[in-house]
Amino acid sequence: MQKALTLTRTSIGKKALVAITGAILFAFVIGHLIGNLQVFLGPEHLNAYAEFLHSMPKALWTARAVLLLALIVHVGLTVQLAVANSAARPNRYKVSSDVGDQGPLMRYARKTMILSGPIVFAFIAFHLAHLTIGADVIQGYRFDPHDVYLNVVYGFRSVWVTSFYVFANILLGFHLYQGGQSLLQSLGLRSPRFDQRVRGAAMAFAAFVTLGNVLIPLTIMARVVGGDVPDLPALPPTP
Questions:
Q1: Which listed residue, 92, 107, 110, 213, has the most CB atoms within 10 A of its CB?
Q2: Closest Cα to residue 218, out of 169, 172, 157?
Q3: Is the separation of the CB atoms in 14 and 81 below 8 Å?
Q4: Residue closest to 18 by CA, chosen among 202, 182, 190, 201
Q5: Which helix (H) or strand (E) holds 169?
Q6: Do 113 and 173 contact (CB within 8 A), yes or no?
């Protein structure tokens, strides 16, 4: 703990912690997506997966605590570094030809990095409230902790919920694209010889996560998934 606190006192230490927590979150993102993709296999598979996770409450809550801590440290230190960099150099440095030739996608990812972090943080908070805690985000439906499949289907039949998920996951994709490259650089593991491969791997990873996360709500909204689930009954008119 003392060593971790010491790291937060220097910019190099902060960047290292951002990279380490980013790696933890990267692992979670891919594992979370693979689990959620079971919605395409039907209610039995998704509900069985959820039941399996909840059969290990100690491991589940330990993982949640580690992820929450990693997320808070990652976002907090990223904001601190951005503020410190802005204060240290109000005028941008001239970029090298390597950076300048990275293309519009890379430049956009770099510019939105500081904004996408807090937005994704807010998205995760909403996601937990929506599908883990069971907040009433859909009128007329009561959250069922034992039927994850129905929660997901009814949740993503809401236009505003699906729109928010798609928007947040596109930002997450840009964040993963830029963060995947920055992670290796912050840990001193990046070499110019492998830059193109690193960029290609980061783009493939970000595209896979974004496409998978976006397909789930969109296919539910289009009734490709869960089409046999009846609509919620109409609410009685308010007097």
A1: 213
A2: 157
A3: yes
A4: 182
A5: helix 159-186
A6: no
DSSP code of 131?
Answer: I
Distances (CA, A) of 52 to 9, 41, 45: 41, 16, 10
Q: Which pLDDT band holds residue 71 (cuts at 50, 70, 90)?
A: confident
Q: What is the pLDDT of residues 87-108, one digit of tens each?
A: 765 555 444 444 444 555 555 5
First to last CA, the chain: 59
Place of tokens 């937060």: 8
Tokens linked to 148: 């994850």
The 3-state DSSP class for residue 149 equals helix
What pTM did the predictor assign?
Answer: 0.77
Catalogue the E-assigned strands of 95-200: none
Give the residue carrying structure tokens 């912050």. 186
- For tokens 């919920």, name the residue: 161
Whether residue 3 has pLDDT greater than 70: no
The per-residue b/e assignment along 112-130, b for 16 or more CB within 10 angstroms, e otherwise, is: bbbebbeebbebbebbeeb
Q: What is the residue-averaged pLDDT of the chain? A: 79
How far, in Å, CA of 117 to CA of 171, rounded? 9
